[in-house]
Amino acid sequence: MTDPVIIFYILLLFFGIIYLVIISIYTYGWFRLKTYKPPDITLKTQVSIIIPARNEEKNITNLLADLVKQDFSKDLFEIIVIDDNSSDQTVNIVNSFISSHPEHKIQLIKISEEEPFMAYKKKAISLAIEKSKGDLIVTTDADCRLGEKWLKSIVSFYESEKPGMIVGPVSFHNEKSFFEKMQTLEFLSFIAITGGAIKIGNPIMCNGANLAYEKKAFYDVGRFGGDEFSSGDDVFLMLKIKKYFGNKSVRFLKNYNAFVFTEAKKTLRDFFNQRTRWASKNKGYDFKILFISVTVYMINLLLLTGLVLSIFYPFLFKIVVFSYLVKLIIDIPILIGIGNFIKRSRMFIFSLPLILIYPVYIILTGALGIVGNYQWKGRKVKK
User: What pLDDT is recorded for position 66?
Assistant: First the structure.
C-alpha cells in the first residue's frame, strides 16, 4: 500500500468519524426539538419589522402585502423598509404602498453609498433599529413570502419563552427545475442542523430572513460584529448574544406557521454567487463553527479525492462508493425529519443526486469564499 493511499485512509477515517458524531448530535437535537404550539393569550409586545431592500421592485409589494394581512394587531407592529441605494423603482413602489395603506405604520428610510463601507446590510439594519419603536426587532428579506400567522407565532413564542434571539425556519418554494429542488433539499438540511444545534445549546447558524431579537439585547452586546465582512449580520449577532447571555438565550422556533419562503436561484452563476457570499463570512466565526466547517469541507474533499485516486488505484473505488453510502445513511434521518416537518417528505428522493454532486460544490464555494469576490444586488463586493 503506497503512501498516498495510507494518508487517504487515515484522513477519511478521522474526518469520517468526526462527521458522524457531529451530524448524529445535530440529528438528535432536531428530533428532541418540540413543535411549538402557541397558547391562546393576548399578545402585548411592540414589534418593529425591518426589511433591508436593494433593487427589489419585483418582490417588495408581495412582502408588504403579506405583512399588512398578518393575524396580529396593527397597533402592535410597525414596518420599516430600509432602502440601500436602489437603482430601480423600489423606493417609488414602497412610497405608493405606504400611501395606499395609511392605517398601517409603515416607513421608508433611504441610505446612500457616499462613503465606502463593507457591511452594507449591517449598516442598513442598524440605522433602522435606531429609528424603530418596538421592543422586539424582527427581520426578513424583501424577496420573502409569509403566512398570515407568521408574526403571531414569533411574538407568542417570545412572550412564552423570553429568549434574547429567536431563529425562525426558512425554505425555498415554487421550484420548477431539478436544480431548484436540489437547492431546497440542501437548504432544508441547513434549517434542521440549525434547529438541532440550538436545541443542544450550541447555536452555529441562523438566517436574517427570519430572525427576531430584543432591541435591548442588540444594544447590550454592542450591536453587530464582523463589520470587516460584507455578510453575516445574522450569525455574528447570534454569536454575540450567545456569548453575552448564554446558550439558552438563542432559541429555534419549530412551528410551520413561522416559516418564511423565498425562491431558489435559477442559474448556476447566481447560485455560486450566493454561496460564495455565505462562505465569505466563515473566517469571522469562532473555533467551534470553523471546526465544523472544516470537517464538512474535508469529508467532501476526501470523497472527491478518492474518486481521482481510484483512477490510479482501482481498488479504492469500492472504498469511495462505500463511503458515499455511509454518508448518505448518516444524512438521511435529519433530511426525513425536516421533510416531514415542512410537509414535503418527497424531497427525500433528491438526496442521492445531491450527495453525488455536493463535494464539487462544497470545494468550489469554500475556495471562492476565501479568495473570490461576488455580486450582491448589482453591487460588486471585494474581500
Answer: 98
